[in-house]
């Protein structure tokens, strides 16, 4: 028995338009991004001569919704593109780019029309900041949406009854690079001490995937006259956005021990392990997540990988990680680590139609009009 391909669908309230998409996560492979494609099914009787459009948008909300006062909204559209689907401006064959679209057009009939979008290079990936227990409304986030609607023209006000919106995610992927092993090597000199303190911090590799523990090797050679104690290792998540003048730091993993010490004239070699999991940070306000996710089985935000030629053009939030070693006397060594999302793609033969609901984006909070999926 051949595997089935799940296809997500969502229908407008007045049944005039319906959207079918084969996936909701689109991967940024560093050198290219998966295109957004799908099929729209229309009801000509409900349209009453109106045109049908489909829109792909990227929105950056840089303030909580309850901060919107006196007409000032803390959000910005980073990217919006709208295309007419019906009446069709080109032949269906020219707009059909994938096998899934071909199968859907054959299955859904003559009132089905394909659409296709490509992401520009200067867009960030989906990121949201985890809200606190008392926060209400929409939170700070970079969000992507595909919206289909009907109207006399694309600039008129969109009616909720005749429109349907689907939240999608743009997620980061990076192949594992085993050749690069980050390390930091630092020497500290103290007053009234003839010899220095030498600290070295190394990581086995640069790329760590979600759920993978981070093992760090610490080597401290204390030739000074001081005793070293209170050694701690932490992972720091750093995010910056268009409207924040300074970087924001947030610890996502921590290991501290009072037992390890390095007396004068001795050496310590030890491996420490950090666990960068959302399960240990689900109550921490302001930590960056992949999309608008809150459940413990979701992920911390992936590191941002941006092409050097468009780095200055990228808006939204940029994510990076580092490991920090600290000890008494404020000695610290830093080595960078990266956390990426590994994605495996396959294309089964058969199809199963399910209503597109953001419940499939684990942890998303929905409105009352969301329904459970159905299978056709």
From TrEMBL:
<protein>
    <recommendedName>
        <fullName>S-arrestin</fullName>
    </recommendedName>
</protein>
<dbReference type="GO" id="GO:0001917">
    <property type="term" value="C:photoreceptor inner segment"/>
</dbReference>
<feature type="domain" description="Arrestin C-terminal-like">
    <location>
        <begin position="193"/>
        <end position="330"/>
    </location>
</feature>
<dbReference type="GO" id="GO:0002031">
    <property type="term" value="P:G protein-coupled receptor internalization"/>
</dbReference>
<dbReference type="GO" id="GO:0001664">
    <property type="term" value="F:G protein-coupled receptor binding"/>
</dbReference>
<dbReference type="InterPro" id="IPR011021">
    <property type="entry name" value="Arrestin-like_N"/>
</dbReference>
<dbReference type="InterPro" id="IPR014756">
    <property type="entry name" value="Ig_E-set"/>
</dbReference>
<dbReference type="InterPro" id="IPR014752">
    <property type="entry name" value="Arrestin-like_C"/>
</dbReference>
<dbReference type="GO" id="GO:0007399">
    <property type="term" value="P:nervous system development"/>
</dbReference>
<dbReference type="InterPro" id="IPR014753">
    <property type="entry name" value="Arrestin_N"/>
</dbReference>
<comment type="similarity">
    <text>Belongs to the arrestin family.</text>
</comment>
<dbReference type="InterPro" id="IPR000698">
    <property type="entry name" value="Arrestin"/>
</dbReference>
<dbReference type="Pfam" id="PF02752">
    <property type="entry name" value="Arrestin_C"/>
</dbReference>
<dbReference type="GO" id="GO:0001750">
    <property type="term" value="C:photoreceptor outer segment"/>
</dbReference>
<dbReference type="InterPro" id="IPR011022">
    <property type="entry name" value="Arrestin_C-like"/>
</dbReference>
<dbReference type="GO" id="GO:0007165">
    <property type="term" value="P:signal transduction"/>
</dbReference>
<dbReference type="Pfam" id="PF00339">
    <property type="entry name" value="Arrestin_N"/>
</dbReference>
